[in-house]
């Protein structure tokens, strides 16, 4: 929301809320929401964005969001960039209803496109007119006053609408080599590609994740409650215009937030599946807007930020927020939450946007190679960043070993080398990098190795083959080398699985008993091949439209980039960042 007429750049979309559950007669609750922390880095600290963010993260992440005031300013304002540097710049807007939804089967708010493309100047004229018609002046107004006016309008509005330019590719950072902010590392066009960012390994542009997007709003343009895709960090920069109000819920309160939304916002009739995950899947549509007093009343922590031009907002992993995120990034400490997000996406059959498994393996191998060249005195086993990467990597390798051993105990598995990137499981949408089932003849409908009942034959009638990474044994070695791997990774070698028959593989009677028990459901279910194949076909056909994009383009692959030497500076006096 905005507090004066000039248009503003921001992110997200609008949604709504269950009217009968909200008491908005008294808006004094807006004064009860504490503000998130604000940081003022020096110009020296500002030169190293991810190092600085790691420094403040232990404190700032407790609030879910924080504000950073830039010590340097842009030489060229956003209006100049969008009207002079970007010739013929135009964008289309969403129309957003200014009211709260009851969120039942008869009242679910959706968005529609206006169908008209605006120049920056045309939309600025529209925004100024909307502001003046409501407040009858063009002066700045206190953010607290505008906040109350917004929620009052949402509570009593019926047919009012606002327009919001969403998902506009590009940014308003200047290309002028003399613009200090535009040439800094805080230019969001380059942020996800910084040496310390994990997303530097993704070799394809993903608008809104690896590349920034513009969001151009007016008075009361709004943004729905949501959590970032894959629980990533996000960063937003306010280029120009009025102040903007954010609400954030810290990641540790995310489950409590979802439970409150499920019980006090959505009607049960529209959440028919997925149980407690129903709220997560509905919120992922980014259409749900409701006042923060709903979660305040149920003891969910929530914080506020009033963002002014020239300020950045950071949202931390799994932090729900009503706000705008121009671009995402990830540090090494994200991997554990990334694993949880990946599992949740699989459970809900949601298409992943980034190849989590591939990112984890690539980064772990770079860490492994980096640690090998250092003396034992300087090995980083006790370093937080190292552990944050290696622990989920060790668990991933162990899960593959368990699955491969289970599968090989029930039948001999033909295998083939895989030199391509990640594949998407056609049954659950899991991204598969280490190994997966695939037909060697039609090369369609890949399936991950983690289904209790896995088909033995492809839809074309031929047997499935397990495709495995050429470097699968190197991945195993890397996992075993870490302290976590020594404690967690099964000493049974992957090479035994791929080089022996079932009888040759299992020498340990106790292990054989365990594997037989694990594989019993698979063995019992392997007889009715037609039934399993029919189920696979039904799932593939049902997901065909969603899978079309990935069949044509593939999941974004990951660069084989060398790890920058500065990242693992193991001197105790320096902070470590992945």
Automatic annotation (TrEMBL):
Residues 516-563 are annotated as: Disordered. SMART domains: JmjC (SM00558), JmjN (SM00545). It holds the Pfam family JmjN. SUPFAM superfamilies: Clavaminate synthase-like (SSF51197). Gene3D superfamilies: Cupin. Residues 531-544 have a biased composition (Basic and acidic residues). One of its GO terms (molecular function) is metal ion binding. One of its GO terms (biological process) is epigenetic regulation of gene expression. Its cofactor is Fe(2+). Keywords: Iron, Metal-binding, Nucleus, Oxidoreductase, Transcription, Transcription regulation. InterPro entries: JmjC_dom, JmjN. Residues 183-350 form the JmjC domain. Residues 36-77 form the JmjN domain. It comes from the Eukaryota. This is JmjC domain-containing protein. It comes from Glycine max (Soybean).
């Amino acid at each position: 929301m905005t507090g004066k007429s000039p248009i503003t750049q921001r992110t997200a979309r609008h949604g709504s809320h269950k009217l009968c559950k909200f008491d908005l007669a008294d808006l004094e609750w807006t004064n009860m929401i504490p503000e998130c922390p604000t940081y003022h880095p020096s110009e020296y600290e500002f030169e190293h964005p991810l190092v600085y963010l790691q420094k403040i993260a232990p404190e700032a992440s407790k609030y879910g969001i924080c504000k950073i005031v830039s010590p340097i300013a842009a030489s060229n304002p956003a209006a100049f960039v969008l009207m002079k540097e970007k010739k013929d710049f135009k964008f289309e807007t969403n129309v957003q209803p200014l009211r709260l939804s009851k969120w039942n089967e008869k009242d679910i708010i959706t968005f529609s496109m206006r169908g008209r493309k605006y120049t920056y100047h045309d939309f600025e004229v529209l925004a100024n007119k909307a502001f003046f018609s409501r407040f009858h002046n063009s002066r700045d107004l206190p953010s607290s006053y505008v906040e109350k006016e917004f929620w009052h309008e949402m509570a009593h509005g019926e047919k009012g609408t606002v327009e919001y330019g969403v998902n506009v590719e590009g940014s308003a950072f200047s290309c002028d080599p003399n613009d200090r902010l535009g040439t800094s590392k805080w230019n969001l066009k380059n942020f996800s590609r910084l040496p310390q960012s994990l997303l530097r390994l993704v070799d394809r542009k993903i608008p809104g994740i690896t590349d920034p997007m513009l969001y151009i709003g007016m008075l009361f343009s709004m943004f729905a409650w949501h959590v970032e895709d894959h629980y990533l960090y996000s960063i937003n920069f306010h280029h120009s215009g009025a102040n903007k109000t954010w609400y954030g819920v810290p990641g540790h309160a995310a489950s409590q937030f979802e439970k409150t939304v499920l019980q006090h916002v959505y009607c049960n009739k529209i959440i028919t599946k997925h149980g407690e995950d129903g709220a997560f899947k509905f919120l992922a549509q980014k259409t749900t807007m409701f006042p923060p007093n709903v979660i305040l009343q149920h003891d969910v922590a929530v914080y506020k930020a009033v963002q002014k031009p020239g300020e950045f907002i950071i949202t931390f992993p799994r932090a729900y927020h009503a706000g705008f995120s121009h671009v995402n990034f990830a540090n090494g400490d994200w991997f554990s939450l990334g694993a949880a997000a990946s599992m949740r996406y699989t459970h809900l059959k949601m298409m992943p946007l980034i190849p989590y498994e591939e990112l984890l393996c690539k980064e772990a191998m770079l860490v492994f190679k980096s640690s090998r060249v250092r003396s034992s005195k300087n090995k980083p086993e006790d370093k937080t960043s190292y552990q944050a990467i290696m622990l989920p990597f060790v668990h991933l390798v162990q899960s593959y070993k368990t699955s491969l051993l289970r599968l090989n105990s029930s039948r001999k598995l033909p295998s083939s080398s895989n030199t391509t990137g990640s594949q998407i499981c056609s049954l659950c949408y899991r991204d598969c990098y280490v190994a997966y089932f695939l037909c060697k003849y039609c090369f369609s409908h890949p399936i991950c190795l983690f289904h209790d009942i896995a088909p033995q034959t492809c839809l074309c009638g031929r047997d499935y083959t397990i495709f495995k990474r050429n470097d699968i044994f190197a991945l195993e070695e890397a996992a075993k080398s870490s302290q976590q791997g020594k404690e967690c990774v099964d000493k049974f070698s992957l090479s035994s699985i791929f080089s022996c028959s079932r009888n040759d593989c299992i020498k340990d009677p106790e292990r054989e008993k365990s594997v037989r028990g694990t594989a019993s459901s698979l063995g019992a279910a392997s007889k009715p091949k037609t039934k399993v194949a029919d189920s696979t076909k039904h799932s593939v056909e049902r997901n065909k439209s969603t899978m079309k994009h990935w069949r044509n383009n593939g999941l974004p692959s990951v660069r084989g980039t060398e790890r920058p030497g500065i990242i693992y500076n193991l001197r105790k006096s320096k902070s470590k960042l992945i």
